[in-house]
Design goal:
With about 270 residues, the protein is an alpha/beta fold. The protein has two domains: about 55 residues, no CATH class; about 200 residues, Response regulator (Rossmann fold). The protein contains ten helices and seven strands. The chain has a four-stranded parallel sheet with strand order 5-4-6-7. It has a three-stranded antiparallel sheet with strand order 1-3-2, with no helix packed on it. Helix 5 packs across helix 10 and helix 6 packs across helix 10. The longest helix is centred in the last third of the chain and has 34 residues. The radius of gyration is 19 Å and the shape is globular.
């Protein structure tokens, strides 16, 4: 099986992706590889898919849908087959963000709209300041979620299944929404993006779009309006993990309401 290791060689610029496509001869009878992250500590895996290599690299994101709406090029058929890609971010990806991922999955499944979303989570190094640099590494990478967080979530019927991994340049390009648990997470995403831009790992256009993608989890709270962060429970007691769950349930419901309202608005425009 082919594997793509988490190293600097794993990050391709758009021009390199173009070159890869130009050097291939797509055949409809051949299944092209679909890059899908395996939840393991050391590598990404290629898994088979029926999509073409060109559509894999250049599949329009939901941000593209919004731009298409503005330009008048949006069609209802495009919306029908589009997923909104959401990734939740915290420090180590073992407490808050994997719980946000699991809670949001539960919310969209309960409301029957899971087919509209691609959901993931990641961390910002877990405390290592050089996590995003070439040769950098992340604390907790490959670890399961914190057992205290897992236990608290299970009591509410939420199962945490992800393993810790850091944000990558590919995430900045691929995901439509990058949602941090606190302001430090937001800053870390911006700092990493600036470095990746300077190293040619992403293009300037992708870095510019980050501003519209990057938001705070608590921005979507309805019951807990005015709260500015989902606090890190790692060094506290059981009440901290319960607080995280309370905030995430509230924020995930608000997030889904916001996204469905936006989706409905775009869909109505596309159908006219």
């Amino acid at each position: 099986m082919l594997s793509l290791t988490k190293s600097s060689s794993a990050y391709y610029s758009r021009s390199q992706k173009n070159e890869l496509c130009l050097n291939m001869t797509p055949r409809s009878s051949v299944l092209a590889p679909n890059l899908q992250r395996a939840r393991t500590s050391d590598h990404y895996r290629f898994q088979p898919s029926t999509c073409s290599f060109m559509s894999l690299l250049f599949k329009p994101t939901s941000c593209d849908l919004i731009r298409s709406k503005a330009s008048g090029n949006l069609t209802s058929d495009t919306i029908k087959h589009q997923k909104l890609r959401v990734i939740f971010v915290c420090l180590g990806n073992i407490c808050r963000s994997p719980t946000a991922e699991a809670v949001f999955r539960a919310v969209v499944e309960r409301r029957g709209v899971s087919h509209l979303f691609d959901i993931d989570s990641c961390g910002t190094g877990g405390g290592n300041p050089d996590w995003y640099c070439r040769g950098g590494w992340s604390y907790h990478e490959g670890d399961e979620p914190d057992r205290r967080m897992t236990s608290a979530a299970q009591k509410r019927g939420i199962v945490l299944t992800s393993r810790s991994r850091p944000l990558t340049p590919m995430d900045v390009t691929r995901f439509d929404l990058i949602i941090g648990m606190d302001a430090k997470n937001q800053y870390a995403v911006k700092e990493a993006t600036s470095y990746w831009l300077s190293e040619g790992m992403i293009e300037s256009s992708e870095a510019e779009v980050l501003r519209s993608k990057n938001s705070l989890m608590t921005d979507y709270c309805r019951t807990y309006k005015g709260v500015t962060e989902v606090p890190d429970p790692y060094y506290g007691g059981p009440e901290g993990f319960e607080r995280v769950l309370d905030l995430l349930y509230d924020a995930c419901e608000g997030l889904l309401d916001t996204l469905l309202t936006t989706h409905a608005s775009i869909q109505m425009t596309g159908d006219t």
